[in-house]
């Protein structure tokens, strides 16, 4: 799909970002950059067919989100730490995939749970302030697709409860994601 068609699909062609949303949008752009690189890192574990399939499916959606965020945010407003978000994303994808399919699914479920919450905060803010309903709709569409990834990872992980180590890992991902959002809102 061409970028123009994709931007039209998300109804993102004529949206200007309100000033009080620039930090959030910067963090969205940084997060989608990291997400793309999570799947690039996971693809290095080429011998695991399940990881390869999930990475391919989820990667395309994350790439689409990155294209949308690139379109919505001016270059001067983007994070100055994109190389860091790429390195961290790649490392997270590679390490979790190296530890196996279940662990990779736990990672994706944790990341996407955080992303869902992050997008929902923005959607609620826009709704309560009655501003930029067009941006709200774009963020809702992105959020819905992230929830699909979260549900896919949860289903693929299986019904077994997370182990102590998996819960610790999930909490670490949530804390790390929170730090990354706060830093990327500023830089």
What does this structure look like?
- It is a single chain.
- With 187 residues, this protein is an all-alpha fold.
- Helices cover 79% and strands 0% of the residues.
- The protein is globular, with a radius of gyration of 16 Å.
- The two termini are 31 Å apart.
Low-confidence stretches: none
* CATH fold field value: Ferritin
Tally of individual domains: 1
Calculate the mean pLDDT score and round it.
Answer: 92
Summarize the structure.
This protein has 187 residues and is an all-alpha fold.
Which helices and strands appear, and what pairs or packs with what?
Elements: H1 3-9, H2 22-43, H3 49-72, H4 82-98, H5 101-129, H6 133-157, H7 164-186
